[in-house]
Design goal:
The chain has 14 helices and twelve strands. The chain has 478 residues and is of the alpha+beta class. It has four domains: 2-112, no CATH class; 132-217, GAF domain (Beta-Lactamase, 2-Layer Sandwich), CATH 3.30.450.40; 245-320; 328-471, Heat Shock Protein 90.
């Protein structure tokens, strides 16, 4: 305000200086003086604005009347034509100054809009050039502060629950509003300190809050900044997911390579052991016959170790690739009994096979189904008391074969049952107490689905039942 009063005073003094030149230094008539005053008013309007030009117009009108219109030296106008001339001069100077001010304002607005567009373009380009390894939100805040010359920038990310800051000054006192903006989508403004907080939205959903201080921006520019920040945050999130997926793929390739190498290293001596024990078991030498029981144990354990390695390789393959079932008509009951027999050394007499009717031969992949049943039974053994039985009940109904495996453990919490078949999922109540990878049930379900069936669970405290379903006629898996 003081600056404006100063400029008005300078404008009026300028009229006085121009009058001195026109009246004393280079004497001119009233018409020439009027054009000189009008030109001066236009210069003031285009330089400072309408208030200064209006003050200069009034001063010029009075001065023109006093020094150049008869009777000179008074504010009296004798000739009525001079009234018209003086009024025309005053009106012309005001209108011209107003038009000049509007043109100046439009020019300034156009320049500001161009600057805003250039800044937005620079910000968008800077977001695209942020490297994947950099802390995206921190770099983004620094870029915003540098490009738009903000005193302070603060960005709250809802996903990471963290605030990132940039700028020469600290943005203090509005952290609660910043968090509320990110969660509720609200906006705040503090005009005294040139502060504004706006929500960053992805579609209609707020994902972050952005606080800016030090420069007043049009709403359209502020919204454009918010949109660019939203795009940048989503791009950074997508890049993180891509990096995680790539790391997972590399880890998977490494794991498969290590398993293949381990299997090769184990199978070579196992083959020799099995060959030696088989030869010794078929011999009739009297001393060998005395050690036959020990050799038989060695042969059984070598066979069991080879079976474990085969299962590990099958598990690795099923975890990373699409499951292709090789279907052959077979007896599911015999397969169940084979699985129970193979697990006798670890399960003892806990596995009880029950049935009320025989099953007809059905098409399924014996190797995959055996692996699925082992995974389910191993899960039941781990999560139930060591002296409780595991009941395996097979039945048939409406073209489907059912294998119900029931244990009597603590049960699965209701909130975990919906996620029990997700890869790597382990309930919070058991994750730190019972070893496991969280893959077994996922693989078993995928095997059932590869046959056109399914694996489901029902659980309550003291009893959990997994139902493994196979169709009598194979259906293409999704």
């Amino acid at each position: 305000m003081k600056q404006r009063f100063f400029r008005i005073a300078i404008s009026i003094l300028g009229v006085g200086g121009l009058t001195l030149i026109a009246a004393r230094v280079v004497p001119v008539n009233g018409t020439t003086a009027g054009f000189a005053y009008l030109l001066y008013v236009l210069v003031i309007a285009s330089t400072w604005g309408f208030p200064e030009a209006a003050a200069a117009s009034i001063a010029a009108t009075l001065t023109l009347n006093f020094f150049f219109l008869p009777p000179v030296g008074t504010l009296t106008i004798a000739d009525p034509q001079n009234w018209v001339a003086l009024f025309s001069f005053f009106a012309t100077s005001l209108i011209a100054s107003r038009l000049s001010t509007k043109a100046r304002r439009r020019t300034i607005d156009a320049i500001e809009r161009q600057q805003d567009l250039e800044r937005l373009y620079t910000l968008g380009r800077a977001i695209l050039l942020i490297q994947p390894g950099e802390a995206f939100a921190e770099v983004l805040c620094r870029k915003l502060a540098d490009i738009f010359e903000f005193n302070a920038v603060a960005l709250f990310e809802q996903r990471t629950n963290s605030i990132h800051r940039a700028g020469p000054f600290e943005f203090e006192g509005m952290e609660s509003q910043l968090r509320e903006s990110a969660i509720q989508g609200t906006s705040f403004a503090d005009t005294e300190r040139n502060r504004v907080i706006t929500a960053i939205r992805l579609g209609s959903q707020p994902i972050a809050g952005l606080a800016l201080q030090g420069m007043r921006l049009p709403d359209s520019v502020l919204q454009s900044i918010a949109n660019l920040v939203a795009i940048g945050l989503e791009r950074a999130k997508a890049q993180e997911l891509s990096n995680e997926m790539e790391a997972a793929r590399r880890s998977e390739r490494l794991r498969t390579t290590l398993l293949d190498a381990m299997a090769h290293e184990f199978k070579t001596p196992l083959t020799s052991i099995r060959a030696a024990t088989s030869a010794l078991l078929s011999a009739t030498n009297e001393e060998i016959l005395k050690s036959r029981r020990m050799i038989q144990i060695a042969d059984e354990e070598a066979a069991r170790l080879q079976d474990l390695i085969d299962n590990a390789l099958d598990t690795a393959q099923l975890d990373s690739e699409r499951i292709d079932a090789s279907l052959d008509s077979a007896d599911l009951a015999d397969t169940i009994r084979d699985v129970v027999t193979s697990m006798k050394s670890t399960a003892g007499d806990r596995l009880k096979v029950l049935s009320d009717k025989p099953l007809p031969p059905i098409p399924f992949d014996r190797r995959l189904v055996k692996l699925a049943l082992k995974q389910i039974l191993d899960n039941a053994l781990k999560y139930s008391p060591g002296d409780s039985p595991i009941e395996i009940y097979y039945s048939r109904s409406e073209g489907m074969a059912y294998v119900d495996i029931t244990d009597h453990g603590k049960g699965i919490p209701a909130e975990d049952q919906a996620r029990i078949f997700e890869r790597f999922f382990r309930g919070a109540s058991v994750a730190n107490h019972i070893p496991g990878s969280g893959l077994g049930l996922s693989i078993a379900q995928r095997i059932a689905q590869a046959h056109g069936g399914d694996l489901t669970v029902k659980s309550q405290p003291g009893e959990t039942t997994f139902r493994f379903v196979l169709p009598f006629e194979h259906k293409n898996a999704a």
